[in-house]
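Q: A reviewer asked whether we had any structural model of the full assembly, not just the individual parts. We don't, so I'm hoping you can provide one. Inputs are below.
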Amino acid sequence: MTMMTAEQYEESLRRLNLVVYMFGKRVENVVDDPIIRPSMNAVAKTYELAHRPEHEDIMTATSHITGNKINRFTHIHQSIEDLVKKSKMGRLLGRETGCCFQRCVGMDALNALSIVCFDIDAKHGTEYYKRFVKYLEYVQENDFTVDGAMTDPKGDRSLPPHKQPDPDQFMHVVEEKKDGIVVRGAKAHQTGAVNSHEIIIMPTLSMREEDKDYAISFALPSDAEGITYIMGRQSCDTRKLEGGAMDQGNLLFGGHEALVVFDDVFVPWDRVFMFKEYEFSRQLVEQFAAYHRQSYACKVGVGDVLIGAAQTAAEYNGVEKASHIRDKIVEMNHLNETLYCGCIACASEGHKEASGTYCVNILLANVHKHNVTRFPYEISRLAQDIAGGLMVTLPSEKDLQSPETAKWLKKYFEANHDIPTEHRMHILRLIENLTLGTAATNYLTESMHGAGSPQAQRIMISRRINMQEKQRAAKKLCGIE
Amino acid sequence: MTMMTAEQYEESLRRLNLVVYMFGKRVENVVDDPIIRPSMNAVAKTYELAHRPEHEDIMTATSHITGNKINRFTHIHQSIEDLVKKSKMGRLLGRETGCCFQRCVGMDALNALSIVCFDIDAKHGTEYYKRFVKYLEYVQENDFTVDGAMTDPKGDRSLPPHKQPDPDQFMHVVEEKKDGIVVRGAKAHQTGAVNSHEIIIMPTLSMREEDKDYAISFALPSDAEGITYIMGRQSCDTRKLEGGAMDQGNLLFGGHEALVVFDDVFVPWDRVFMFKEYEFSRQLVEQFAAYHRQSYACKVGVGDVLIGAAQTAAEYNGVEKASHIRDKIVEMNHLNETLYCGCIACASEGHKEASGTYCVNILLANVHKHNVTRFPYEISRLAQDIAGGLMVTLPSEKDLQSPETAKWLKKYFEANHDIPTEHRMHILRLIENLTLGTAATNYLTESMHGAGSPQAQRIMISRRINMQEKQRAAKKLCGIE
Amino acid sequence: MTMMTAEQYEESLRRLNLVVYMFGKRVENVVDDPIIRPSMNAVAKTYELAHRPEHEDIMTATSHITGNKINRFTHIHQSIEDLVKKSKMGRLLGRETGCCFQRCVGMDALNALSIVCFDIDAKHGTEYYKRFVKYLEYVQENDFTVDGAMTDPKGDRSLPPHKQPDPDQFMHVVEEKKDGIVVRGAKAHQTGAVNSHEIIIMPTLSMREEDKDYAISFALPSDAEGITYIMGRQSCDTRKLEGGAMDQGNLLFGGHEALVVFDDVFVPWDRVFMFKEYEFSRQLVEQFAAYHRQSYACKVGVGDVLIGAAQTAAEYNGVEKASHIRDKIVEMNHLNETLYCGCIACASEGHKEASGTYCVNILLANVHKHNVTRFPYEISRLAQDIAGGLMVTLPSEKDLQSPETAKWLKKYFEANHDIPTEHRMHILRLIENLTLGTAATNYLTESMHGAGSPQAQRIMISRRINMQEKQRAAKKLCGIE
Amino acid sequence: MTMMTAEQYEESLRRLNLVVYMFGKRVENVVDDPIIRPSMNAVAKTYELAHRPEHEDIMTATSHITGNKINRFTHIHQSIEDLVKKSKMGRLLGRETGCCFQRCVGMDALNALSIVCFDIDAKHGTEYYKRFVKYLEYVQENDFTVDGAMTDPKGDRSLPPHKQPDPDQFMHVVEEKKDGIVVRGAKAHQTGAVNSHEIIIMPTLSMREEDKDYAISFALPSDAEGITYIMGRQSCDTRKLEGGAMDQGNLLFGGHEALVVFDDVFVPWDRVFMFKEYEFSRQLVEQFAAYHRQSYACKVGVGDVLIGAAQTAAEYNGVEKASHIRDKIVEMNHLNETLYCGCIACASEGHKEASGTYCVNILLANVHKHNVTRFPYEISRLAQDIAGGLMVTLPSEKDLQSPETAKWLKKYFEANHDIPTEHRMHILRLIENLTLGTAATNYLTESMHGAGSPQAQRIMISRRINMQEKQRAAKKLCGIE
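A: Here is a predicted structure for the entire assembly that you could use as a starting point for your response.
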C-alpha cells in the first residue's frame, strides 16, 4: 500500500495508542471524539482527494526514492513544478475543508530535513541523510501523516536555552545511550498532533555552542511511550457537542492544536537527524519556516470559502447587486488573489539545493506569509460587513425546531422568498465559524502566528533583502559616486 | 426613588413577566440564567456607578422637568456639555464592563423623540410632545432601562413596506381603537431587550405616504402582552454554562441581542409618539441614528480594556520591551484615541434643536461611527499579534485543575517566573473573549452593524457634506470663475 | 492700529530690510519676487479675512491685555471656545488659500511662552512673564506676523547639543552682556520666515543641565542684524516664473520655507524669555508642539480644496455619477472629517494652565497630527485616481495658446461639451499642484514632518496614555487581582 | 544588424522626422532637447543592457521567426520562462533607470496582436497573422522601439464611439482605399512616443457592431505624414533646463508622455492588423491590458531605487539604526516584494494561446496591477517619512555654489561628518524626484492609471473570478445542498 484511502487512514488512527487529555480528562476514543473528529475528517480529505482522478496531478507525486506514486504530502520536491503544485494543493484543500487540514507541517519538516541532513553530512561526514532517506521511504510507503514540531514553550524569552531556570523549556537530550537518546521537553501549538502517525522534532531557534544539547532533530511514532497530548480549546469548540446540524457552521471539518509533552522519551539512533550540530539549527529553522510559510497557501482556499459564503449571504439577503456589495466582493477577491500570487511566486522562484531538493525562495515565502498575517483579517471584516448583523444575533438552531419560536424565525428571517430561511441561517453560521468560531482560530489567529509571528517574517525580510544593490542603484542615479 | 441602586435594578427585573425563549425553550428565570446574567450585570453597572461620587459628574444629571438628580441614561441633553459627558460616560462604562452595557439605545430614543415630537406638534398641532414629556418623567422618576427598537426584519430589501408580500416585515398598526392602537411586527438585533423595563419603537427607515401605517412610534412596558423575546446566540456563549472561572474570559459582564416579536400588541394613546406622520420618519431615523452613532463612544472603553489586556499579555509573555511590541501598543492607542476624538467632536460641535434638546453634529457622528466599523478590527488584529498563538491553543481551565495535566500546563506555560501561569491564561482568555468570543460579537460585529451598517454612514456623509463650498474654493484658486 | 488690512500688511513688509538668498543670489525685492509673492498673499489672507464681517467671530478676538479687538493669530487663548475657534480658523484659511498660510506658528509660540514664562517665574522668581506680556502687547497692537522657530539643524543625531563637534548645530548663547545676549545657530524649515515681522526662537528638544547654554528662548525683529534667510525650493517652484495663468495650478497662493542663520545676533534682555532654565525646555517643546499639532487643522481646509477639485474634475470628465467615483469622494470626505474631529477634540478637551492660558489636550493633539501624517496621502491618492492620467500628461498652457497645437488640445481634451476645455485643464493643474507640485510639499511632506515627524507623535502618545488604568480594568474583568 | 547598441539607437532617432511640439513650439532637435533627452536615455538603456553579458539571459531572446538573437522587447513569448523573464527585465530596468523606460508598451502590443491576428484569421479566414509576422520580423531585425497606442480621448464618457458628437474622439477609418486606409483620431498619454520608430494603434475598448469603423488596429512609422506629437509636461520638468547637476534628482533618466494626433494618416494594407472585426476588440483590449499590467513589474525596480535612496538618506541623516526607521524600511521592502510576487505569479501561471504565444494569467495580471495602484503611494509616503522635511525645504544647488550661502549650507546641513553635505542633498533630491518630481508622475500617477485605471482592474477581477466554485464549496461545508 503506497496511498491510503480516507477510510484506511481512519482505521490506522484507531490502532494508535495515544495519551490525549481534553477538559481535564483522558480521551479514550480519539477518533470518534466529537470535538476532535472534524479535524480528523480534514486530514482524511488529503487521502481522499489523492484518489480522485481530477486532483491526481496536484495531490500525488512520484517518489524519487522508490518511483512509486505517493501522496504529495510525503514527497520531497524535485522541481519548481513540484513547489508550485504544493501551493495549489494547499489552496485546493483549504477550499474543500474550509479549515486547517494539518498535514502540511510534516511535509515541510521532511523537505527541510532532506536538505539539512545532506548538508550536515557534507561538513561532518555523518550519516544523517542515509538515515533520513530510509525514514522517508517508511513514511512514503505507509502514507503516514506526520506532525512537524518546532515551537518550544521557550520560558523566559530573554534567555537562551542553556540559561533557562527550567532547562526543559526547550527540548533537549537528557541521556545519551548506546542505542539512542532520551529527550525531554514539550512542543506547543501542535496542529493536527493527535491525527498523526509520526512526529518530527526540530529545534525552535538558532542555537549557539552552549546550547548544543538543544540542537537536536528526530522522529518518533506519535504514540511513543512518554508522549502526552493536551488538547487546546478553540472558540465555539463545544458547539460540536450540541448534536445539531447548523450552529457549528462548518458541519464537516475543523482543526486542532495540542501541547505535546515529552517526558523522557527514548529515540533510537536511526531516527535521529541532528545531534548537537548547533551551527545547522539556524538553517533548519529558516528552511522549515520558509516551506511552512509557503504552506499558508491554504488560507487562499479558506478565503475562497469565505468569499463564496459572503456572496451567497448577499444573495440570500437580497442585496448582491448593490454597488458597494459588489465592490466589497471584488476587494475580498483582490486580497485573496494577492495572497495566491505570493505562494505561487515563492514556489516559482525556488531553487535546487545540494541534496537535490527544491526549496522555495525564502524572501518571497516570508513576504507571502507576512501578507497572510494581514489580509485574512480584512477579508473577514468585509465578510462581516456583507453578512449583516444577523450573523451574531441569530437564535440557535433549536429555536428553529421549537414550534413556539420556529414560526417567528421562519417568518421574520425570510429575506428572499425563493430561499428557505434555514439556508440563510446556515450560511451565516458558516461566516460566524470562519470569522469568530473554530475556523477563525485558524483563518485569523493561526494566520498570524503559525509558521512564525509577523515579526519573525520582518526579520527574515530584513536579512534577505539585498540593500547594497538598491543603494548602489540610487546613488548612481543622483550622482553620488 | 429617582435613582435605583444595582440591587434595586436587579430586583425590579424580577418583577417583570417577560416571555423569553432561548435554545428552543422558555426561560423561566431570566435574571439568573447564566447566559443572560452577565448582560444584566453590565446594565446594573450603569446604576452602580451613578452612586459613586467619583463618577457622579459623568453618570448623573439634573432633570430639566423635575429638577431631580437622575441617571444620565434617562436625561435629555440640555447643553453641549451634556453631549460631551454622554460620550465620556460611554467610554467609562465600556472600560468598566469590557462589553456592551445596552442602556444607551433607550437614552438615544428618548432624546430623538424629544426633538421630533416637538417638531411634529409644531407642524400638525398635535400633542405628542406633552405625552412624551409625561412619559419621560415616568422613566426618569423610576430610573428605568429602556430598549430603543428601530431595526425591522425588512423582508425583501428591494421593496418598500407597503409592497412587502408579508406586511409584518415592518412594524405597523393593524387596528385603531378608541383608547389606543394594535401593532404587529418585529424588531431584530435588540440589544439588552430582556434587561429593560420599557421598549420604545421607532420606524426603521424614511417612509413615504403609502407607508404611513408603518410610520409609528410608541412605548410599551417590556412585558406587555403579546411581546415575545427570542435570544440570539453569541460566539462562545455556552462557556458561561461551564461553571468555571477562566474560560469565559470576561468573568463578570456580557451583552445580548434578541428578536422581539409583537403579535398584535395594544398600545394606549398616551404612549403613542408618532402616528402616520410619515414625513417625520426620516428625521427620527437620522437623529436617533446620529445619537446612537455617537454612543459608539463605548467601543473606545472596550478598546481600553483590550489595550490593557494586550499590554499585560506582553508583560506576562516577557516581551513588553521589544520595540515592535511597543510600537503596536502605540498604534492600538492611536487608533483608539482617534475614535475618541470622533465621539468628542460630534458632541462638541452639537447644536440646540427647537425643543431645547441638544443634538450632536450629524455629519461628525456618522464619521465617528464609520471609523468604529474599521479601527476595532485593526486593534483586535494587533491584540492577537501581541497575545501570541497560545491564545487559541490554550487548554481548558479544567486541564489546570486535573492533576495529570496541571503539572504540564504550569511547567510549560510559565513565561515569567514572577507571574502565576494562571494569570497568563486569564489574560489570554480575555483577549480571546474580546477578539473571538462573546465580546467580539459586540466589539467587532456590532461595531460594524450597530446603529447602522457602514454604507448607511457613507450615505449620510454624502448627504451632509457641503460639496458646493469645496468646489467654489477649488475653482477660485485655479482661476475658473 | 490694532488690525492691519492686507494692503497695510504688504506695505509693512516693504519696510523690512531682510537678507534673503534664493538660487544663490540676494533677493532685492522680497515682496514682489514671483516665487515668494504667493506665500505673502497667503499670509495677507489672514489679515483680509479678519476684516470680513462673516468671519469676524472666527478671525478676531479680544485681547486679554488691552481689551482691544485683535487678529486671533496674536491672541492668547482664554477659553475652550478660543481653542475651538483656532481650529476652525485653520480650516477656513486652508480652504481659502489651498496652501500653508504660515501665520499659526507664531501664534503657537506666543501661547506656549505665555504658559512657560509664567511657570518659570513661579519656580525661579524671574520676570519672564512680565517681559513676555509687554512683548505680546507690542505684537498685538502692531498686528505682526511672527515666525515661531524651533527646529535646529541638530548635526549628529546621536549626540546632545553640548557634545556636538560643531556647537552651532543647536542655537546657543555665545556671549552674555549687560544689555543682552549674543546668539549663534540656525533654524531650519522656517515656514513663512520672510513674510514675518518678528521671529521667536525656542529650543528644539528637552535639554539637560550640560546643555543649559542651549536652553534659551527669545524674540527678534526679522531683519535684525546678523540674520540671513536662504529660501528652500519646492517642487514646481519655477512654474511661477513662467508668467502664465494655469500651469502653476494655484494661481494665487503658496507657501515657503527657509533656513534662517543667526550669525552672532544680539538680543536685548527684554526680549529674552528663557535663559538656561533647561528644566523647562521639555515643557516648552511639548506645549508648543501640541499647539502646533492642533494647527494642522489647516490641512482639513486644504483637503476641502482637493476634494472640491476632485469632484469638479469628475464632473468635467463626465464620470461623477459612477458608483466608484462617488464612493471615493465619500472616502475622501470621511478621512478629511476624521481629521477635523481630531483638531476639534483636542481643543474641546483643552484645559486652563496656571497663567490663565488655555492649552489643548496634549494626547489628542498628537493623535490628531499623527493622522495628518497619513490621511492626506490617501486623500491625495484618491484625488489622482479620480482626476485621471491626464493630470500628468497635459501639455503646457503655452500649447493652448499656440495656433498649431491649440486646435488639437481643444478638440481632444473636451470631455463635456458644456465645459470649456480650459476649465478641465485648470482643475487638473490644481490637483497636480496639490498632489505633486508646490502645494504638495505642504499638504503631504509638511503634513508628515511639520510640528514634528510621526515618531515624535508616537513617543508623545506613549507618554500620555494612562496604561495602568487600562491594565487595571482588563485584569479586573478576567479575575486577576 | 539584429540588435542595436545604445549609440546606434540614438543615431537612428536622429534620422526620424517627427513633428513634435512642446511649450507651444515645434521641437527642432528632439534627441538633444534637454527635457526629452533623459527619456531617450532610458530607452537607450534597453539597448545597452542587451549587450551586457550579465544581463543577456534576461534582456535577449531567440526569435521564433528567424532564430536570431533579438532584444527581448521585440520578442513574442514562447514559454512560461519567457513571461517570467519579461517581469524580471522590467524590474531590472526600473532599478537601473529609476523611471519609466517606455519600451514595454510596444512589446505588449506585438504579443497581443500575435494572438488576436491568429484568432481573427481562424474565424474569418483573413490573413492578418501573415501580415503581422512579416511586420514583426521587420521590427525584430531592425530592433525598433515601438509605441503601443491604445487610449483614445473618449469625449463624452457616457456615449459609445459612433454616438460621439465629434466622431474623432475615437480613432477611426475615414477612407478605405485600394492600397490602404486613411485614419483619423488621437491617442492620449503616449509613453515614450517620440523615442519610438514605430507606433501600433489598437482600439481603446470593446466595440459593438455599430462601432465597427473604430475596431481597427495597425502600425505606422512614427514619422508618418499627418502625425503630430504634443508633449505633456511633468512636475518639475523645467529643472532639466537649469543646467545643474543636482536639483533634477535623477541626473540621467526620465520619461515622457505625449498626445499623438492622427490627421488623416494613410496606412497601407500590409500594416493593418484588424479591420472592423469588432467582436475581437474586447479580446485585444483585455490581452494587451493583461500583458501591460504585468509590465508594471518595472515599478518594483523603481521601488528598489526609492528604498535604496531612503536607506541611504537614513544613513546620511545618522538615524539608520533607529528601530522605527528599520521597521519602515522593512515595510517598504515588504510592499515592494509583494508587488514582485504579483508580476512573477501572473507570468508563472501563464498559458499557451492558439497562435503559440504565451499569455499571462489575466486575473493575476490584473491583481498585480491593482496593487501597483496602491503600494507605490505607501512606499512613497514611507520614503518621505524617512527622508525628513529637509527634502522639501532644501535650497537650490546654486545656493551651494554661491560663496555667500554655501558656507551655511555646508555647515548646517551636515548630519554625518563622514558624508559630504552634497551627498545628503543629492539623495534627498532623488527622493523628491521620485515622490513629487518628474519620476513621481510615473511611479505614482502612471502606476495609478497606466495600463488602465483601478476600476478597470476591478471589473476584470470581477469577470475572471470563478464565484460559482467558491459558492459551491461554501454551501457544501455548511449543509446547503
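A: Points you may want to mention in the reply: Chain D has a mean pLDDT of 97. DSSP finds 17 helices and 14 strands in chain D.
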